[in-house]
Fold this sequence. Notes:
single chain, alpha/beta, Rossmann fold, 6 helices, 43% helix, globular
Amino acid sequence: MRRSIVPGSFDPMTNxxxxxxxxxxxxxxxxxxxVARNIxxxxxxxxxxxxxxxxxxxxxxxxxxxxxxxGLLVDYVTHIGATTIVRGLRVVSDFEYExxxxxxxxxxxxxxxxxxxMTTTExxxxxxxxxxxxxxxxxxxxxxxxxxxxxxxERQVRK
Length: 159
Ligand code: ADP
């Protein structure tokens, strides 16, 4: 069985993330969406909330599970018996960072492969930071994130 992992901050998840996860679920027997707990960037949502949002929105994908991890990604990949890291590419500017990460992860763990999936054009401009910025400035994030995420975001911003 080939298991892949879709890692990220998911703070919060967007429709772009769903797009990548759905693509990964068609390519692999099993997919683990892995929420990075120790992100430096002072997250808006706790790891538990980020996991809960992903679980709700991935419920229609029977071969997809959601988890969170601390520490090195490659250690977690090996720990759960996955073979491949799936990352989304939106625009050329993603490439430099992703290339650096892929090489670093290969150096740390040569048996783990990184695979890139291009997002649908519709979501190529979309990121968690843009979504947060819109919400914090009082704009509508409808169509950019699932409805349940939009509601959580609105509640969080009001706090
Ligand atoms: P990280 O902080 O690790 O980059 P993110 O939550 O921002 O985590 O992203 C997780 C993964 O989802 C990354 O591979 C990223 O390239 C991808 N991704 C983020 N937004 C989109 C989008 N709009 N379309 C496709 N992939 C995306």
